[in-house]
């Protein structure tokens, strides 16, 4: 069969490929809670309660004490109320005139009313204490997570699955919001249940075991359902993580032009919907399992409940308990049943929460294990020399090093340019020189001191970096210049840094000058052009007056005037520091004292511009290619 041009043109385009499915392998492939037995999981409840108590105690002791006292009072009032009901039943169901019987029951009824009032008051106070505890607990969990991620060795980000574990841990933060509530309700129900079942046992010993049998299946069902929910949550972690990232990329105005002008909207929406449907499908697939669990547990619970009521009727009919006691038993059964159900429901909720809290805790422990283990020596105040001795750095999962045996030495006042094709290891070498990554092999020495032995904060107090992908902070202009540096008492140094990159006019024309919020998405915020943002990133590094200034493609978005201005400024300040510039604009390397040419992680050429350009090597070839237009 021949396909004509017309029929090809009319043919429906093939459907787009769905989002790639992420499959775990290695250390994160196993769900740490996946193999835990039912009993093992239930046995964790006390430790979850202990952890919540410990966190709460550190934040607000008054609220914890108030909460504990109110719980006890609530339980005590439930017991007193029930005992008083039992006492009131006897005269009410006894013989004699109604008024006499009510009169006799009045003291007990007053106790019932008083106990109910005190119970309500204490549960209102308990709820107040819970509300007092929840916001600081959530903030504490949230900031611990953010801090843990900010403080890990940068190498952790390159670990497969690190971001997915973080996503799983985020749910722990969300659940922190409800955990005090869960714990409080669980404890309240437990105390109420103990009080009510005590009264019930006094009425007849057989009632409590029967009621327990009636609610236990519901408890088991709730816990099993929680486990299924958690399993699904776990299975969806990486898809949710990717969806979350893509949501930002698709909707942020920063990429709006690219999305629209490249006709990406349709595919992005298809992609987003497909991923959401895949997540939903996993949840829906689990629905029959949860239905089965609920039906079975309800049937078992219903059977035992029927048995409990039948037993009570039998005890009353056969005269084994008298009518007044039987009537009290009805109230006690109802109260105990309600309390037991609450114990079970809230116990399951607490159990559910504990699964997410465990993920959060596991991540925090993992992050703590990845915290920098460096020395405590302060970095030299004046950086005279950097020596790099045969350094090697290989990213996890890569089959060859990104930097492979580089040696080099740099002296104060020098400007070094690093060039090389994409992926040759330039940015990685910069990470090693600044101590963002520690070398797998070899050493980086600052004035003779190994970076691994120096306190990282003191090292980074001496560096200024303009990375290839610089951040456009949604902060005011001033903070965009001073971020990472203590605030000075006036704006003079800020304006100096702004002048250094030729941004005065642009900043002055903003609605609030240096006070202007650079986030168009926020009401009143302003936006800069790409080149202006890059100038601001340069001003940030210049403002720091660093001992080591590193610029990775610092002028890629700038006009010729801006580029000239920046390089002039670099030259002027070079005597007071060590400067390293990475650039693909080879003409810009003329300002450097030396040029390093990298290929596949190695240094393949090294020298001054005039020598390299005439040497017939890779540098000369790249310069010739740049001119061949
Ligand atoms: N965070 C990372 N995790 C894993 N691999 C990485 C990471 N960063 C870089 N790589 C890999 O290391 C190698 C060197 O990358 P690097 O960014 O150092 O090159 P580069 O010379 O700066 O490239 P370019 O000129 O494109 O900026 C590449 O193969 C890259 O895929």
Automatic annotation (TrEMBL):
<dbReference type="GO" id="GO:0005886">
    <property type="term" value="C:plasma membrane"/>
</dbReference>
<dbReference type="InterPro" id="IPR039421">
    <property type="entry name" value="Type_1_exporter"/>
</dbReference>
<dbReference type="GO" id="GO:0005524">
    <property type="term" value="F:ATP binding"/>
</dbReference>
<feature type="transmembrane region" description="Helical">
    <location>
        <begin position="64"/>
        <end position="86"/>
    </location>
</feature>
<dbReference type="InterPro" id="IPR003439">
    <property type="entry name" value="ABC_transporter-like_ATP-bd"/>
</dbReference>
<keyword id="KW-0472">Membrane</keyword>
<dbReference type="GO" id="GO:0016887">
    <property type="term" value="F:ATP hydrolysis activity"/>
</dbReference>
<protein>
    <submittedName>
        <fullName>ABC transporter</fullName>
    </submittedName>
</protein>
<feature type="transmembrane region" description="Helical">
    <location>
        <begin position="211"/>
        <end position="230"/>
    </location>
</feature>
<dbReference type="InterPro" id="IPR027417">
    <property type="entry name" value="P-loop_NTPase"/>
</dbReference>
<keyword id="KW-1133">Transmembrane helix</keyword>
<feature type="transmembrane region" description="Helical">
    <location>
        <begin position="323"/>
        <end position="351"/>
    </location>
</feature>
<feature type="transmembrane region" description="Helical">
    <location>
        <begin position="291"/>
        <end position="317"/>
    </location>
</feature>
<feature type="transmembrane region" description="Helical">
    <location>
        <begin position="106"/>
        <end position="128"/>
    </location>
</feature>
<feature type="domain" description="ABC transporter">
    <location>
        <begin position="386"/>
        <end position="625"/>
    </location>
</feature>
<dbReference type="InterPro" id="IPR036640">
    <property type="entry name" value="ABC1_TM_sf"/>
</dbReference>
<dbReference type="InterPro" id="IPR003593">
    <property type="entry name" value="AAA+_ATPase"/>
</dbReference>
<keyword id="KW-0547">Nucleotide-binding</keyword>
<keyword id="KW-0067">ATP-binding</keyword>
<dbReference type="Pfam" id="PF00005">
    <property type="entry name" value="ABC_tran"/>
</dbReference>
<keyword id="KW-0812">Transmembrane</keyword>
<dbReference type="GO" id="GO:0015421">
    <property type="term" value="F:ABC-type oligopeptide transporter activity"/>
</dbReference>
